[in-house]
Sequence to fold (132 residues):
Amino acid sequence: MLEVTGATKRIGTTTLLEDVSFSLARGATLGVIGPSGSGKSTLLRCLNRLEELDGGTVLLDGDPLRGFPVHELRARIGLVSQRFSLFAHLSARENVELGLRRTRKMAAPQARARAALAGRRRAGRLGGSTAA
Fold:
């Protein structure tokens, strides 16, 4: 479980995030949407500790985010930024599978099944096909 309470981030006199709070269950996916400059990327960078929050708390499975070694934290929280790089010769499912194999050290069959399951869940929510 990821729990964010009162997250705040400022640069100088500019507030980038103010009192952001939400909970996200293990295995769930969250899309963060909003207009340009609304703090989406800042929030994600703070969750992966590419930047530190100025206020608020973030707990991962009940433990403060700051207590995790950065490499362990980044292996547990997936992030796709605005300037992401997918391998063009692979399908979306294959890109997810590769990420699971490289970052979570999953065996190929397990990663393939997990990536396919994620694709079916997403397609079901969107009312689309399961092809990735």
Remarks:
- Residues 108-126 form the longest helix (19 residues).
- The longest strand covers residues 14-24.
